[in-house]
Amino acid sequence: MRTSPPLRAWLVAASLAGLWLATAQAVTPPPKVKPVATHAPSYQTFVAGTISRSDTLASLRQRLGKEQVQATQIPGSEEDVPGWIVYPHDPQRRIYIYLDDTGKHPDMAMVLDARSLWQRADGVHVGMSLGELVQRNGKMLEFSGFGWDEGGYVIDWHGGKLGVGLAVRLCEPDFPNGNQTTGYPVGEGSYSSTLPILRRYPPKVCEFALPTTPAERSR
User: Fold this and answer.
1) What is the Cα–Cα distance from 58 to 193, expressed in whole angstroms?
2) What is the pLDDT of residue 41?
3) Read out DSSP for 148-213?
4) Nearest in space to 51 (alpha carbons), one of 180, 219, 209, 218
5) Local structure of 56: helix, strand or coil
6) How many Cα atoms are found within 13 Å in the side-chain-facing hemisphere of 214?
7) Cβ-based neighbours of 217, under 8 Å, separated by 6 or more
8) Closest CA to 169 of 195, 203, 135
């Protein structure tokens, strides 16, 4: 059967169009995928003087807002103790206030939350590795072994820059398969930051104290 001229012309045009489309698809580069931006946490430096040892629950509420200061039980070394929580509904800003012997004034302000974005003026913040901590201190340090109530606290700064009387606590890293590595520093002894195993499995800062201004009490 002979193909009529109009039909033949249409078939040729269709074939050329198909060839052009295939060629265009072959040479068109794949769309570029934009890399996902990664951002370091935006830490907020705690301003010394925000909390004073002369403060009362009433004075803190007046300064920060009634809803921003809660009187409640807070974590102690062995059991919960009476205290205050500043910014209680915000885990990135939450601060735990431990009270003095009178139960009326701050004795110590602590950051305990893993999501906290507070940092001290000396750069200490949650998530800081032991290596970073030693670097900022400028000297080796010693800490208590892990696995008990007082485990992980830095107990000797060896005269370094961070030895200013403000507590810093380290926590163990995540170990492979969740099992603690043999030879890791545990128990009530004192351990040096120079231990080789700590370079392979560095602990990180998980709690630290914030500066409070000295009391000026006439109360």
Assistant:
1) 42
2) 75
3) STTTTBEEE-TT-TT-SS--EEEE--PPGGGPPPTT--BSSSEEETT-THHHHS--EEEEEEEP-B
4) 209
5) coil
6) 1
7) 54, 105
8) 203
Task: Look at residues 53, 101, 77 and name the one whose alpha carbon lies nearest to residue 169.
Answer: 77
CA distance 209 to 109: 6
DSSP for 4-20?
PHHHHHHHHHHHHHHHH
The token pair that represents 212 in the structure block: 């409070």
Q: What is the dihedral of CA 23, 26, 31, 33, to 10 degrees?
A: -170
Residue with tokens 């809660």: 70
Structure-token pair, residue 17: 């169009």
Predicted local distance difference test score (pLDDT) of residue 165 = 93
Ranges assigned E (strand) in 32-105: 44-45, 69-74, 81-86, 95-99
pLDDT (tens digit, 9 = 90+) per residue, 85-110? 999 999 999 999 999 999 999 999 99
57: Cα within 13 Å, side-chain hemisphere: 15
Q: At 62, list the tokens.
A: 């007046």
| Residue-wise pLDDT tens digits, 67-79 | 999 999 999 988 9
Instruction: Count the Cβ atoms, other than its own, within 10 Å of residue 203.
Output: 21
Q: Which domains does the chain have, with CATH numbers?
A: 44-210 (2.60.460)
Tokens standing for residue 80: 């919960």
End-to-end CA distance of the chain: 114
Closest listed residue to residue 204, CA positions, set 102, 114, 119, 99: 114
pTM: 0.79
